[in-house]
Specification:
This protein is α+β, with helices and mostly antiparallel strands. A hairpin with a 7-residue loop joins strand 12 and strand 13. The protein is elongated. It binds adenosine-5'-diphosphate (ADP). Adenosine-5'-diphosphate binds next to helix 12 and helix 14.
């Protein structure tokens, strides 16, 4: 029998259950499908994102590859801007940099596309545009898309859409990177992220390039200074070999710069490989050794060497060595010491010489006087002759000493040095000929005058020629006996006296200008010639040097003198005065006033003139002398230069006499033993005659005879 399912409740339940199950499964399947569809979409999006990131990564890698290739700032900024345009698909981009120093402004360093015209533009601090704002607000990343207001990039320049990212290095904003006008119409957040990555990367490379530039510039400055120094500088290694050298050192060593590197400095400088060993070793230990001062025979110069350690890795230490050429400085110091020595000796000498003047005048004068006595025995005459000769010799020495002490001669006129040489050589000519000595003259035809004292300069030439003559006179037969006297001008007037003698041994060189230094036997040399010469040359503002030995051996002295000022007038040369004849018993009897405090001098002069039949009145003090002179009637007044006008300090008696009785001017002879040039200056100004103590009686007689001759003529 068939059954109606609807009537069967069990079947109904089963049917409902099946239907429900079917419905549930359908729902689950639908959900599953939906989920599958969604994950497919996300996968596609993730793949797209991945692609995009990969492409960014490759682009950045490409950029970093390009940037790492260069440290040139200009090239780097150009590249950054070019890549920014490309990566971000923009129409314009620029990179602006803040200057290195506060005074340097923000400036557009590179610009492309629609912004190209802004390249090089300086941005004012108060500019309201995006460039200035972006660098001012440190962390800002700006984005403005078109549709809204246009963006001002810099005052007077706008763009529809723009994005800016500041460039930061070590926490400091060094510039900004800006892109404008996206081709897609708008910038999206991903663009800004990429721009930011680009900016971070660019900032690092730009900062590096700037550091590199700074170091390069510092190195350049250091190298310029290194080469500009007049002192020689070298960096040497452990072995003392030169690693670097400046130009000054190369030129001191006389070697091209490139050849100095690698040479051992001790050898190159002082000719000995270990010459600098101690100095370098002490420096390496960290001591501060005293500088080494040495004369380099190789370079013929004196050098001072200082060293300092360059801090660095202990394994490879460098030392910097400074080399100064102190040849001139040493010469100056020696000259200074020499001048001081001379000044001290000069003072001593003048005091002694002064005291010797009067006794010597008396000894020479009285012995000369006695020699004229007819009744003298032959033996006594011989003894007296010796006394007189020796007194005269002593007198010559004292006169020399006084010349030496008499610093700065009174006379300063233009003098023709060639003329002085000719005169001096004609004086010595006979003597030199006797000794078979030839004198070569190489006198410049265009020699300016020097400014000075003719007698002093004559003494210079005479001393040098006398020394040269004494030197060549000792030559063996086969060696020529030659003296060469030359003059030339090269801004200074030069005189050289060179000889073919044995030359001056090294151990003597230091002492030749020292007073009383002589290598000659007693009677031949006093050791004063060169020191006197030195004083005279120095008082003329010049210098005298012993030149290094020339090819012909022998000694050569060179004198350098400044030329006379262009406006100085050369005085007429006075003709050499003939010696008047002095007769033993004059036809005219004269009255003479003698002013001298020394009884020995009084006695001598009195005896001299009394023998000639003249009257001599003696005044021991100036007041007495003045009284006698005012009484009048004297044909001659002989007065000591030390006699001063009574009651007037600093005025010579002679001056007082002339001012009171002008007619006496031509009748006064002053005996001066003074070393002060002022006394002779005063006498020259007064126009009175003078004889230098110690004088011999002949000198005084001759001077007196001249005076009378002159007054008789007038
Ligand atoms: P002196 O000639 O009286 O000795 P100097 O002062 O003139 O005094 O000279 C000092 C020394 O210098 C001399 O003793 C001599 O040793 C040396 N000297 C000077 N000139 C020469 C020369 N032309 N040749 C060699 N030696 C010289």
């Amino acid at each position: 029998m068939a059954m109606d399912p609807l009537r069967s409740p069990a079947l109904l339940y089963v049917t409902i259950a099946v239907a429900l199950i079917l419905l549930g499964s359908g729902l689950v399947l639908w959900r599953l499908r939906q989920r599958l569809l969604r994950s497919e979409h996300e996968r596609r999006r993730a793949a797209e994102e991945l692609n995009r990131r990969l492409s960014e990564l490759f682009s950045l890698q490409e950029l970093s590859y390009v940037l790492s290739d260069s440290l040139e700032l200009d090239r780097i900024v150009e590249q950054v801007v070019r890549y920014a345009v490309r990566f971000l698909d923009a129409r314009g981009a620029l990179l602006a940099l803040v200057g290195d120093t506060p005074s340097d402004r923000l400036q557009v360093a590179a610009a492309e596309g629609t912004l190209a015209s802004l390249r090089g533009q300086k941005i004012q601090a108060d500019d309201s545009g995006l460039i200035a704002r972006s660098t001012a607000r440190e962390h800002l990343e700006l984005i403005r898309n078109s549709g809204a207001e246009p963006t001002e990039i810099v005052k007077g320049f706008e763009a529809a859409a723009a994005a800016a990212v500041p460039l930061r290095s070590h926490g400091i904003v060094i510039g900004t990177l800006i892109i404008t006008d996206p081709r897609e119409g708008a910038f999206v957040p991903e663009d800004i992220r990429l721009l930011s990555t680009l900016a971070t990367h660019a900032a690092v490379v730009i900062a590096n390039a700037r550091f590199f530039e700074m170091v390069r510039r510092a190195k350049e400055q250091w190298e310029t200074a290194f080469d500009a120094l007049s002192e020689g500088i070298a960096v040497v290694d452990d072995e003392g070999r030169v690693r670097r050298s400046n130009r000054a050192l190369a030129s001191l060593l006389g070697t091209p710069l490139q050849n100095v590197v690698g040479t051992p400095l001790g050898e190159a400088l002082l000719g000995k490989p270990h010459a600098l060993h101690d100095l370098l070793a002490a420096t390496r230990r960290g001591d501060r050794p005293a500088p080494l001062v040495a004369r380099s025979e190789r370079l013929k110069r004196a050098v001072r060497v200082n060293a300092a350690r360059i801090p660095g890795a202990a394994t490879e230490q460098s030392i910097v060595v400074m080399v100064e050429d102190v040849t001139e400085q040493q010469a100056l110091e020696t000259q200074l010491v020499q001048s001081e020595k001379l000044a001290a000796v000069g003072q001593l000498v003048s005091g002694v010489a002064h005291e010797l003047n009067n006794p010597l005048t008396s000894i020479a004068g009285l012995s000369e006087f006695l020699l004229e006595q007819k009744e003298l025995g032959k033996k006594d005459r011989g003894h007296l002759q010796v006394i007189q000769e020796q007194a005269e010799r002593a007198g010559r020495i004292v006169r020399n000493l006084l010349t030496f002490a008499r610093k700065g001669s009174a006379e300063r006129v233009p003098v023709d040095l060639n003329e002085v040489i000719r005169r001096t050589l004609s004086l010595t000519g006979y003597d030199l000929k006797l000794k078979d000595i030839t004198v070569e003259r190489e006198l410049s035809g265009a020699l300016p005058d020097v400014f000075g004292d003719r007698h002093g300069l004559q003494q210079v030439v005479l001393n040098l020629v006398t020394n040269a003559a004494q030197a060549v006179a000792e030559n063996p037969r086969e060696r020529p006996r030659e003296i060469t006297v030359s003059t030339w001008f090269d801004g200074q007037v030069h005189l050289r006296v060179a000889d073919t003698g044995p030359g001056i041994p090294d151990e003597v060189v230091q002492s030749v200008f020292t007073p009383f230094f002589t290598t000659k036997e007693p009677g031949k040399g006093t050791g004063l010639g060169l020191s006197i010469t030195y004083s005279i040359v120095e008082s003329h503002g010049g210098q005298i040097v012993l030149e290094p030995r020339g090819p012909r051996g022998g000694a050569a002295f060179r004198v350098d003198l400044p030329p006379a000022p262009a406006d100085a007038v050369r005085p007429e040369l006075t003709p050499v005065r003939g010696t008047p004849t002095v007769t033993a018993s004059p036809t005219v009897k004269r009255t003479i006033l003698l002013v001298d405090a020394d009884p020995a001098v009084q006695r001598t002069i009195k005896a001299l003139f009394a023998r000639d039949g003249h009257d001599v009145e003696v005044a021991g003090d100036p007041q007495h002398a003045l009284d006698l002179a005012l009484r009048g009637g004297f044909d001659l007044v002989i007065t000591d230069a030390r006699a001063m006008a009574p009651g007037k300090r600093g005025t010579l008696l002679a001056e007082e006499l002339v001012s009171r009785m002008p007619a006496l001017r031509d009748r006064i002879i002053v005996a001066t033993g003074d070393v002060r040039p002022t006394t002779e200056e005063t006498l020259a100004r007064l126009g009175v005659r003078y004889v230098r103590k110690p004088f011999n009686l002949r000198d005084l007689r001759v001077e007196a005879a001249r005076l009378w001759e002159a007054t008789a003529l007038s």
